[in-house]
Amino acid sequence: MPIESRTLDHGRTVFVRGALSIWEAADTWRTLLPLLSSPDPLTVDLSEVESCDGAGLQIICQIARAAGLPDAAITLGPPSPSVTAALVRAGLVLEPFSNRAQET
After folding, report:
1. pLDDT digit string, tens, across residues 22-39
2. Sheet hosting strand 42-52, strand order edge to edge
3. Which of 15, 22, 62, 83 falls between 20 and 30 A from 90, CA-CA?
4. What is the pTM of this model?
5. Among the residues of 1-104, which ranges form H helices?
6. Which is it for strands 3-8 and 74-79: parallel, antiparallel or unpaired?
7. Mapping DSSP to helix (H, G, I), strand (E, B) and coil, where does residue 38 land?
């Protein structure tokens, strides 16, 4: 799973691409974890995730949990259709995605 990080005007954006599955979960989490604890604004863009399984959902839920912390400046970017489908299959609605959809 390629992860690209760019610093833009509003802070850092991390683009997650490819599969977000059990095979990539450990490496993906090791890459994301230090970024989630940064005080700088962070957007995690999941719009290019091609497939997502239960392990991928666990990572997304951990990102959402971190985004909900009082001093967090973390935003979940728009989910890809495969992320949306995985969330629906699991019966999950994540607030960071919901708030983002209402703002647009």
Report:
1. 999 999 999 999 988 888
2. 3-8, 11-20, 42-52, 74-79
3. 15
4. 0.82
5. 25-36, 54-67, 81-90, 95-103
6. unpaired
7. coil
